[in-house]
Amino acid sequence: MAAHSKLPITVLSGFLGSGKTTLLRRWRRDDALRDAALIVHDLSELGIDAQLLSDEGASTTPGELHGRVAALHGVHAREQLKPSLSRILKQIASLNPSPPQVLCESTGAARPWPLISALTQNESFFLRHFIVTVDALNLHRDFADGRILTGEVSRGNDPALIQAAEVLAEQIAFASIIILTKVDTVSKSVVDAQVRILQKLQPKASIGLSAQAGLLLSQLDPTPAPKLTNLKIQAEQLGLTNSAATASKVEATIIRDPRPFHPARLYDTVQNQLGTGLYRTKGYLWLASRPADVLLWQQSGSQIALEITGYWRSEILKNAEGRLLPEEVDLLKKRMESAHPLFGDRHAELTLIGLPDACNTFASALRSAFCSEEEIVAWKQGESFEDPWPKTLRQIE
Fold first, then answer.
1. Given CB 3.0 to 4.6 Å as the disulfide criterion, which of 77, 103, 133, 319 pairs with 14?
2. What is the pLDDT of residue 10?
3. Distance between CA 394 and CA 397 in Å, rounded?
């Protein structure tokens, strides 16, 4: 089958928290990508990124194609990666209308060759780009602008830094394009130095700069597609042909709880309990001080972001502004019949990704930040809570 008759696959890889989902959400607003198929390869058991990228946050099923979005999380991201992708690629190939291309967002803990091999097992597809996103701020803070990756600066004895450097260096080695993200968070001289080091690490890759997801996929068209035979030779030379799909020392810990977080105690936990071995935390939560807001929590390294993704049905049902019709109120009540008797549909659902000890330590600290029984009584009675988080949060479109 000629390459031009095959469906192109663009892989967006890169270390945890480097802005892959933000870029994808921006790209999918372009008319040319409206019918693109999407594969989300996510170490998390919850599939948060797949939900964020689905139309109106539609629910997804692990290992299955829903509409044009496939969620590869949990075991489908690791042990069952190749058979799950085999099934999903067949489903994508039969879509009508045929997608202009396939976009694959990969977990930052992914080993590149197993993913490339699994994505190219079906002859109806070819690899168009293997893009690696690199966070300029984290590269500056944690990797000495990349000199730790080149060996010019010692990785030291921090096991988290060593693990992160190994995974990032491996991803860059397979990159056909490197996108340096968040370049507005560091000085131009730092960006220039980082570009020089990234070119040294992967001289064959094109390098793009992105601030606030400002780089469009169409701008990458001049970059030729990588040759699969060359990537396979590289995998053999690096001893990666039989490597696991994700970094072996990285695990995912899940926290599910209907209770609200105490805003001040959660803030204190973030300030004092974040360790270097916790690479990424993401998910949904609610604060006792802001019971209406569905908050998306995203942490990478020392950076924390809280964003509003919508409003809990429990709050909407109050119909405080009288905007709901009686039949809409009845429908919401039916949907809420199985909800928590006190909290309704409000809940916290978080995934922690990192080294086992760091995940366990931070998970324990987070659980202690939930409201106690006494504090829940106070919340129910309408008492106020100290809230050091920014009063105005960005709302996701």
1. 133
2. 97
3. 9
The answer to whether 89 and 64 are in contact (CB under 8 A) is: no
CA atoms within 13 A on the CB side of 191: 15
- Quick one: how many helices (H) and strands (E) in the chain? 14, 14
Positive or negative: CA dihedral 146, 148, 152, 153: positive
Rounded Cα gap, residues 300 and 21, in angstroms = 13
**How high does pLDDT run on average in the chain?**
88
- Tell me if residue 6 falls in helix, strand or coil: coil
Instruction: Enumerate the domain spans of the chain.
Output: 3-237, 251-395
**Sign of the alpha-carbon torsion through 74, 255, 335, 58:** negative
d(CA 111, CA 129): 16
d(CA 43, CA 32): 29
Q: How many angstroms from the chain centroid is the CA of residue 239?
A: 27
- What's the rounded Cα separation, in Å, for the pair 70 and 52? 12
pLDDT confidence bin for 333, thresholds 50/70/90: confident
pTM for the model stands at 0.77
Only one residue has tokens 């990704």, namely: 353
- The pLDDT tens digits of the residues spanning 117-173 come to 999 999 999 999 999 999 998 899 889 999 999 999 988 777 777 888 888 999 999
Fold of domain 251-395: Hypothetical Protein Yjia; Chain: A;domain 2 (3.30.1220)
Phi and psi at residue 194, to the nearest 5°: -65, -40
DSSP line for 120-140: TSSTTEEEEEEEEEEEHHHHH
Which whole number is the average pLDDT over 374-389?
96
User: How distant, in Å, are the alpha carbons of 216, 276, 388 from that of 282?
Assistant: 25, 16, 20
**Long-range CB contacts (< 8 A, 24+ apart) of 263-267?**
263/287, 263/288, 263/289, 263/290, 263/385, 263/386, 263/387, 263/388, 263/389, 264/385, 264/386, 264/387, 264/388, 265/368, 265/369, 266/366, 266/369, 267/388, 267/389
